[in-house]
Input
Amino acid sequence: MLTVNAYAATSPTDPLVPTTIQRRDLGPHDVLIDIAYAGICHSDIHTVRGDWGPITYPQVVGHEIVGHVADVGSAVTKHQVGDRVGVGCESGSCGECEQCRKGEEVYCLNGNVQTYNGLDTDGSVTQGGYSQAIVVHEDFVLKIPDSLPLDKVAPLLCAGVTLFSPLKHWNAGPGSRVAVIGMGGLGHVGVKLAHSLGAEVTVLSRTLAKQDDGLAMGADHYYATSDPATFENLAGRFDLILNTVSAGLDYSQYVDLLAVDGTLVILGAPTEPVTVDAMSLIAFRRSIAGSANGGIPVTQEMLDFCAEHGIVPETELIDASSINEAYERVLTSDVRYRFVIDISTLHTATN
Ligand code: NAP
Ligand code: ZN
Output
């Protein structure tokens, strides 16, 4: 067992605190990763605050993880000591069901292993990336292309694939009109990806405060949803709308922005139920769908695509001691556009 410094939640309401956790000894197919950087996803905050139900405390969250391979198990073939690697939202799955065989491990029919607050194969609760090191089966370790800067790339492991996967699934590309609702951690990466895939990209944000940034990232159009005229002007316009909002919305308003056969994909995961006016869907054979981050093959494809197209998330690097402040800033949408924790500062956080 390896003891490592970490930052943990101890209750739904108390600030996260420095702690230590144990990492298991390497099994034959395990990889030990020295974590360099970890992104702060809004899902981390939903989880520790109990928005999605009770969790096990203390809990170390973080599923946007990058670093270097420090050691490998005896049978590991995919990774070598020193490699630049990443881990995303899943760190295991059954490997045998129809979905796993297709490389859709995120939809494992026997239940995947979430990187944190998940049930590991040995019955323990998984602990995530706000920590100095992690042990993960080699199949769930991604390769980080050399051209991507390690200190900025962590958000791709969740935010990146969460947007790339539906963009690919619903065939976004030249000739398609894509809207992204919410210009946050997920949304801003979605703008860059959709633009690079060749789609016409529109941002639907509450205000125009981030318009210049959105246009610079590749958006063709930018509208404020606080302006009722937005919904009149854009009625029936989009083939695909990706909703990244962390709170509930009037979904029918957005369904009305879909073209015939268009799809509204729910990515943001608030606690409120999704209710939609039936006639909005029926009228133009519109669909409403959900999508979870992505399997291992599409995650690697996304990383390689980002390297090829020079796509790098916009990040603010913070010390571990600033995690609680960063949470508050995420909750007030005061983030440009993803916080990334410099894990080397965990040393000082525990001193
Ligand atoms: P984030 O950085 O906080 O961004 C969310 C954005 O939503 C904000 O920037 C804001 O955009 C908009 N927003 C926030 N509150 C709002 C409100 N009350 N009304 C309307 N718009 C509001 O969060 P994130 O990390 O991108 O995550 C977004 C959501 O996706 C979270 O619920 C998270 O749990 C979920 N998620 C899902 C998956 C998945 O697999 N499906 C993966 C990762 C995350 P504007 O300021 O532009 O309006
Ligand atoms: Zn996430």
